[in-house]
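Please review this one:
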Amino acid sequence: MILFLVGCTGKSPSGKKGIIGKPTQILKYADIYRSQNGQVEVRIETPLVYNYDGDSAKMIFPNGVKVWFYNNDLTVKSFLTANYAINYNKSNYVYLRDSIEIINYNNQDTLYCQELVWDRTQKTISSDKPVRRQSASGIAYGDGFQSNEQMDSLKIRNPRGTQFVSDEE
């Protein structure tokens, strides 16, 4: 179940549903929550959303998004920002691009990339573009990554970089 809590000025610029090329609704200052079985999983905040209906139903976030992923106790597990996003409603894919930053609060890792795909059905996040991971143990670069949406199981493809090792190891 998806719960939408939106503060917006909603308009239908086309006046009709399903006209190709024009959004059926414009939301300003949206705060969107996704919950499942009564548990809030994700919060998305954005200054602007264009909703499109019909065969290519999607939500476009042209001015970027901030996304919080929650633990069961409603503490923030990870945080994502991107300057542009598209949510494809029928396929449950979200495409993000431009200055993406993902912070995992559990292990204090931060991931930077320019493009990624969030598969909401499989609850995975991945990219085939260059990526940089900054952690307490160093900085790693790679040719892409794959993880669950909470960033618990991050795997960087072709990793390289600098790792810090304590004198005790």
